[in-house]
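User: Quick one: structure for sequence A, then sequence B.

Assistant: Sequence A:
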Amino acid sequence: MEIDYKAVITGDIINSTSYDLNTRKLIRELLMTEISSKLKNSFGKELIPLPIDVFRGDSWQLIINNPSISLRVCLFIRCLLKIKLTSNKINTRMSIGFGNASVPEEKVSLGDGDAYIFSGKGLDSIGNNRINLIIKFGINDLNSIKSVNYCVSSLPSILSLIDFISSNWTYKQSMAILGKLQNKTLIEISKDWFGSSINSATVTRHLSKAGWESIFESLNFFEKLLNN
C-alpha cells in the first residue's frame, strides 16, 4: 500500500451505558492519556502523530501513518484496556479504515478523507453483531495492495477470528500479549510483570493459552500484505 495512505481506527466502548459516570470518565482519561502515551512510546510519533481523541462520550478515534501496523495497534489498545480496567472486563469495538486522510494539527476527529469515512461506516455497520473488529477500504485501495484479491478478501475473516480470541483474553494473558506486541523477549516480559520478575515459563504458558502463535501468524500475514 502506498505510504500516502493512512489508517483511521474508530471505536467505542461496548455496553458503556451500563457503567457509572466515574468508570466512563476513567475510560476516557485512560484512552487519551496513558494509552496514547504508550502508543507513542512504542510505535513512535512518526507513526502515531496524535493521541487518541474521545468524542460523544464513549467513542474514540486514532490516525496511523502506516496502515500495516493498524491491527497490532488495535490489539495493543484492547490489551491495555483489559489490563487497566480488568475488574469491569472492558472491551471496545474497533473499525479500521484505509484511504487518503488529512492529519489535523490538534485533534484526530478534526481530520477528513476516505480513511475517516470508511472507518466510521465500518463501525456503524457492526450494529449488534457479535464481531467487534472489522476492516473497511475502497475498491481503489485494492489496486494499491500488490496481492491477489483472494488474499485481500480474507482479511475480514482473519480479523473476526482475532477478535474472538482477543476478546476472551484474561488480565494475565493480556499482560503477556502486550509484551509480544512490543517485540519484547520472554525475559523482558517477565521483568515487567507487576514490577517484579516471574518465571519465563509462566509467561510462555499464558501466551499459549491466549493463542499467541495463531495471533502472530495472522499479524505477519496482515502486515506483509499491506506492506507489499
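Sequence B:
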Amino acid sequence: MKSLFIVRHAKAEADAPGGDFARKLTERGEEDAKQTGKHIAKIMTPDLIVSSDAARALSTAKIIAKKTDHDGDLVEEHAIYEASVPDLVDVVRALPNSEKKVIIVGHNPGFEGLAYFLSKNREAMPRMSTATAVLIEFDIADWTEVDEETGSIAGSFTP
C-alpha cells in the first residue's frame, strides 16, 4: 500500500521581479499552507516530501513539513515545474519504494490532471484551488506500478 498526497502550492503573489519561478507566498498563502499541513498531520506523517523548486511550491512544502513533524528529506524536483501529466507520472514512478507515505507539492494544471489521471473514483475529484491536498491511495508494492486509474481518492482538503 502506498499513499500520495498531491498538494497544489498555496496562494502566491501575482508577479515577482524574478519572474514566475520566483513568486512568493502571500500572507493568505502562508496561512492556507499551515491549515493544509495541519489537516495532513491528522492523517499521516510523511516519509518523504518532494516539491517543485519554484519559490511558492518550496515555501508551501516547508510549511507542510513543519506542520506534519516531517523530519526526513524534502527533495526539490525541478521536473515538477510546468510539468505535463505524463512528466508528473514519471516523477511519481521514480519515488523510492522504501517510502510509503509521500507528499508532492507543485502546480496546476498539471497537479489536477495528475490526480484525475491516477484515480479510479474520478467523481470524488475536487477542483484543486491553491493549497488543496488530494490523498490518493494505491494497492501496489512498487511506485513503478502507478498508472492511469491505479489509485483511489481517499480524501481531499481545501482551506
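Residues 39 and 110 are 22 Å apart (CA to CA). DSSP finds four helices and six strands in the chain.

User: Thanks, that's what I needed.
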